[in-house]
Amino acid sequence: MPPMHLHIITTGGTIDKIYFDAKSDYQVGDPVIVELLRRMQAGFEFSVSSPLRKDSLDMTAEDRRLIRNHVEKADSPHILITHGTDGMVDTARSLAGIADKHIVLTGALQPAAFSQTDAIFNIGCAIGAVQSKPPGVYIAMNGVVFDADNVIKNVSENRFEAQD
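^ thats the sequence. predicted structure below, dont judge the formating
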C-alpha cells in the first residue's frame, strides 16, 4: 500500500496566532503546520491550501462553504483541517455528507508559538485519526477523536467533550 498523501487545509485560529502584547493584540500568522511536520520528519507526503486566516469567531456561512469546496476538490481522501476552536464544531457539521473522505479538524487552545501549546499533541492525534478512522468528519482535540455530530466545546472547562 502506498504511503498516505494528506491534504491540509489551514483556516487560521489560535493555532496560528501571534501575540504582540500580553495576549491582547494578535494577528493570525502563517500556518505553522508545515514547519511542524518538517521538523517532526513526517513519513508521508502532504500538500497545503490556506483559503482563510481568520479567528473562528469571525467565520461566516460563506467561509464554511469555501472550506467545504476545498475539501470536495482535494485530490486526497485524507483531509486535515486546522481551525479555531470556537467555531470548529459548526465547521465540522457543515462538512457532513462528503463521500469517501476522511476529514479531521483540529486546532489548539494555546498558539503553537507558545511553549505550553497543545498544538503538536492535537496535530499528532489528528494525523493518527485521519489514517485510522472510516470516511466521515471528526474533531481531534484533547487526545480524543470525536464524531462531528456528537461533540461540543465546553467553554468553561476549555476542552472538547462528547455531547451525550
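Residues 11 and 19 are 17 Å apart (CA to CA).
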